[in-house]
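tokens incoming
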């Protein structure tokens, strides 16, 4: 089994190449990204601070900035190659947008905590360590804050799970089990993709 540091290195190497094609290819199978932001907005009308863990090329950051024009937004990612592309998307939002190049292995908030923490197709790639990430999220959330997760859930096809593993994704239903340990769900939906080739998860919760 990989250690967290080995996993971080492997993901950095993976995205050094995939950053170039990420936005051109992921639209075809990363479903629910707009929906999770819309659902988060319904539950936190005017958030002051938002954190996205694994912000990638900044697609969600730009959408968050437009949806919440008064919010201070932080995007965190392991990959400098992904963050380089994110900067070009978010620079127009000025000082209310902050990008951090680091693993999420300790809380980010140094004062006021976050009203929304978003994880969009990042949690299933944190192997090992996704359970520790959720514990850190609890420390980073404000008392009324929410965690919003959209991610791969599972697949009944072993060949597909194996192929996704080669792309650093574990999809065995493990995320929902851990999410429900730490958070009281406000939204919990599992939806089919491509005729049930796989299922993806939409989850919004508050700290227990």
């Amino acid at each position: 089994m990989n250690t967290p540091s080995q996993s971080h290195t492997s993901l950095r190497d993976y995205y050094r190449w995939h950053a170039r094609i990420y936005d051109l290819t992921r639209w075809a199978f990363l479903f629910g990204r707009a929906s999770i932001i819309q659902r988060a907005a319904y539950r936190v009308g005017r958030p002051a601070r938002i954190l996205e863990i694994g912000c990638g090329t900044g697609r969600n950051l730009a959408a968050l900035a437009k949806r919440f024009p008064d919010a201070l937004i932080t995007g965190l990612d392991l990959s400098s190659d992904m963050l380089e592309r994110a900067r070009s998307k978010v620079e127009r939002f000025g000082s209310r947008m902050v990008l951090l190049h680091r693993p999420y292995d300790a809380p980010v908030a140094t004062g006021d905590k976050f009203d929304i923490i978003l994880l969009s197709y990042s949690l299933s790639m944190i192997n090992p360590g996704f359970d520790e990430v959720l514990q850190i999220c609890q420390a980073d959330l404000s008392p009324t804050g929410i965690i919003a997760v959209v991610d791969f859930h599972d697949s009944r096809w072993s060949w597909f799970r194996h192929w996704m593993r080669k792309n650093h994704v574990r999809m065995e239903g493990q995320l929902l089990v851990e999410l429900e340990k730490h958070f009281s769900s406000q939204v919990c939906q599992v939806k089919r993709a491509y005729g049930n080739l796989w299922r993806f998860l939409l989850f919004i919760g508050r700290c227990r």
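note: The chain has eight helices and seven strands.
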